[in-house]
Amino acid sequence: MDLRKLQKIVVDALEDIKGRDIEVINTSKLTSLFDRIVIASGDSNRQVKALARNVQEKARESGIDVISVEGEEQGEWVLVDLGDIVVHVMHPTVRAYYNLEELWRTTPAARRKAVAEAEVAHAST
Q1: Can you give the pTM of this predicted structure?
Q2: Which CATH class is domain 3-91?
Q3: Which of 16, 47, 63, 78 could cross-link to 42 by cystine, CB 3.0-4.6 Å?
């Protein structure tokens, strides 16, 4: 499927369930694993789960394979892997803590440093 169509399906699915602060980041020049990251916030764990489920349902309805889903049990951060697009649906506090937007908008060297700093900070909590 065309990447733009897949991106529209994902963003529309998030907007359907009132996902907030939806952001699409082009990662095609940063990694060969995927071309886009879509990040959205849900106001509660229940909404985060509903947003991620809706993305999965809309993707499957369009004939897109859902490669994997992580984090559905807790609902604070659910990752939906659609191959070319990886969707992160997060509770606002988790999103602020990990700040994926900044991480993926930096140069590779700065990104490695940010990841190392985040790992150290997370290990000390």
Answers
A1: 0.81
A2: alpha beta
A3: 47
